[in-house]
Amino acid sequence: MSARELRGGPAADALLADARTRLSDLSATPHLHVIRLGEDPASVSYVRLKDKKAREIGLHSTVHALGEETSEEALLELIGTLNHDEHAHGILVQLPLPRHVSTEPVIAAIDPFKDVDGFHPSNVGSLWSGLPGLPPCTPAGVMAMLAHYGISAAGRRAVIVGRSNIVGKPLAALLLRADATVTIAHSRTPDLAQVTRQADLLFAAVGRAGLITPEMVQEGAVVVDVGINRVRGPERDRLVGDVHPDVATVASAMTPVPGGVGPLTVAQLLANTVRAAELQHYQRHAALRQATP
Ligand code: NAD
């Protein structure tokens, strides 16, 4: 068997086309604010991509490029200002932050209605309770990709390798909502292969090149590779996933790396920014209705 390739580009385009059509129903163009501290090369390039893509679909975008030495207080003050600015619809603080700034209080300071990364504890709670909110971009992007390719999770066994707050755990919440039977495996899971072989849908979000090999995959499984690993090539570094390329001989469908889940993450961020503007619009209208005697 040679797996059908699930490319992220077309799925991301569909997500963006939908976000673009919703723009016309809004009274103001959504404005995304991305805050970056320092000059970490990966963060610089991710932020540049987010800014470029936001502008491409017709959003306003501002990048706040602050110095590495910016204090936590100064960062919290900027977040507070953006929280109160009704023209700032989405706020994203690029992670990781420098060591002297604690991530949790910074995330918790963002207005949950503007938290386009979906990391605020209130959005995490909404995700697990099935309430409306803003979902984390990578897992929500993965679900959008499955939907785009007509792959249903309902009634199927899903195994996620990786239990991080940004991928593994929220992906489990979304798959549960989609009526899958979900298992999360991690670095302390004994006999990982025995667990992954049960999967009709297998998700790898670990950060180890080629961890998932063909013997670990059930014949005909759908395999989604979230991992991004930089490996040394003879001439230059290249990006590979957590799933060994030979898995394509066993799986029925599989995402490539690069060009798989990656484009969905940015597309979902922009969809979340439009969603955030919609939520704020309804919130203001509800407040106005309550204030009207
Ligand atoms: P993380 O380091 O926070 O979590 C990794 C998880 O893998 C942990 O839960 C750990 O328990 C588990 N793990 C580690 N070694 C293992 C092993 N040998 N067997 C089983 N489980 C093991 O990482 P993360 O932030 O969740 O990211 C995971 C990968 O996904 C990374 O490669 C990252 O670059 C990539 N990623 C990609 C996107 C995207 O847009 N495509 C977005 C976020 C993360």
TrEMBL record:
It holds the Pfam family THF_DHG_CYH_C. The keyword Ion transport does not apply. GO terms for molecular function: methenyltetrahydrofolate cyclohydrolase activity; methylenetetrahydrofolate dehydrogenase (NADP+) activity. Residues 7-117 form the Tetrahydrofolate dehydrogenase/cyclohydrolase catalytic domain. Keywords: Amino-acid biosynthesis, Histidine biosynthesis, Hydrolase, Methionine biosynthesis, Multifunctional enzyme, NADP, One-carbon metabolism, Oxidoreductase, Purine biosynthesis. CDD domains: NAD_bind_m-THF_DH_Cyclohyd. It catalyses: (6R)-5,10-methylene-5,6,7,8-tetrahydrofolate + NADP(+) = (6R)-5,10-methenyltetrahydrofolate + NADPH; (6R)-5,10-methenyltetrahydrofolate + H2O = (6R)-10-formyltetrahydrofolate + H(+). Pathway: One-carbon metabolism; tetrahydrofolate interconversion. GO terms for cellular component: cytosol. Residues 136-280 form the Tetrahydrofolate dehydrogenase/cyclohydrolase NAD(P)-binding domain. InterPro entries: Aminoacid_DH-like_N_sf, NAD(P)-bd_dom_sf, THF_DH/CycHdrlase, THF_DH/CycHdrlase_cat_dom, THF_DH/CycHdrlase_NAD-bd_dom. NADP(+) binds at G162, R163, S164, I228. One of its GO terms (biological process) is methionine biosynthetic process. Its EC number is 1.5.1.5, 3.5.4.9. The keyword Hydrolase applies. Belongs to the tetrahydrofolate dehydrogenase/cyclohydrolase family. Homodimer. Catalyzes the oxidation of 5,10-methylenetetrahydrofolate to 5,10-methenyltetrahydrofolate and then the hydrolysis of 5,10-methenyltetrahydrofolate to 10-formyltetrahydrofolate. PANTHER family: C-1-TETRAHYDROFOLATE SYNTHASE, CYTOPLASMIC, C-1-TETRAHYDROFOLATE SYNTHASE, CYTOPLASMIC-RELATED. This is Bifunctional protein FolD. It comes from Deinococcus peraridilitoris (strain DSM 19664 / LMG 22246 / CIP 109416 / KR-200). The gene is folD.
